[in-house]
Amino acid sequence: MRRISAYFINLLIVAWTFSANAQDSIIVMPMKIRIGADVYGPVSYFINKNTLSIEGYFSIDIDTQKAVVAETGYLDFRYSQYNYNYQTKGTFIRLGVDFNLIHPEKAMGKYYAGIGLRYGLSIFRSDVPFFEQSNYWGSVTGSIPPSTHVAHFIEASPGIRTEIFRNFSMGWVIRLRILIYSGTGKDNKAVSIPGYGNGVKSFNPGINYYLIWSIPYKSQKVK
Q1: Angle CA(29)–CA(30)–CA(35) in degrees, nearest 5?
Q2: Total structural domains in the chain?
Q3: What are the residue ranges of helices labelled H in 92-139?
Q4: Sequence-ordered list of residues with C-beta below 8 angstroms from that of 129, at least 6 positions apart, any chain
Q5: Rounded to whole angstroms, how far apart are CA atoms 114 and 102?
Q6: Which residues contact 183 (CB under 8 A, 6 or more apart)?
Q7: Cα–Cα dist 123/99, whole Å
């Protein structure tokens, strides 16, 4: 009888210990909506007045390590040299998913180091107000009227983000973009495509630096 009693007492102790350990291993993760703005584009405009780029960022956590993302922006680009003027204006949108590679119990909704995948769509209007071409017979001047184009691209976007103070984060993203369709003919490639970059190149890297405001909207328990 004593052996049976001791057995049940030991069993209860083990069960209580397991329950306590299991309870300690559960954490509560905040799921957040994030709204941000890129500061790299406006700052670079003060250095290079020919390019004005404005970008915004919006994301919603769908679980502890994934978030759906939408990014949109506007580009006003001008380029001039002695025999050639070019300008582009347009908007773009990028849609995709971010994957946080930091374990949830370390990230706690505050820290991000991971990679995003995006599909990009750019709608822009470009024209050449003036060009001059010289040859043996003399010089010819002219212009190319405005035309509207639609470009498609994909990108991978590794980056990091950290919370500076409550619900306010800062971070950077590297853009590794591949052009699928430029929207222009091979003889009239865009010098710059909004949201993508140099339209002459099939691969185009870039960078953004974001200030992000976070809004917790629910919590999720994680073991």
Answers
A1: 140
A2: 1
A3: 104-107
A4: 85, 87, 143
A5: 7
A6: 122, 124, 149, 150, 151, 152, 190, 193
A7: 27
CA distances from 198 to 133, 205, 209 (A): 23, 9, 19
The one-digit pLDDT tens for each residue of the chain (223 residues) are 444 344 434 433 434 444 444 445 677 778 999 999 999 999 988 888 889 999 999 999 999 899 999 999 999 998 877 777 888 999 999 999 999 999 888 888 899 999 999 999 999 998 887 666 777 676 777 667 778 999 999 999 999 999 999 999 999 999 999 999 988 877 678 889 999 999 889 999 999 999 999 999 988 777 7
Whole-angstrom CA distances from 166 to 9, 59, 140 are 47, 18, 62
CATH number of the domain that 201 lies in?
2.40.160.20
C-beta separation of 212 from 57 below 8 A: yes
What residues make up the domain containing 18?
A: 2-222
Structure tokens at 7: 């057995």
Residue 150 has, within 13 A of its CA and on its CB side, a CA count of 2
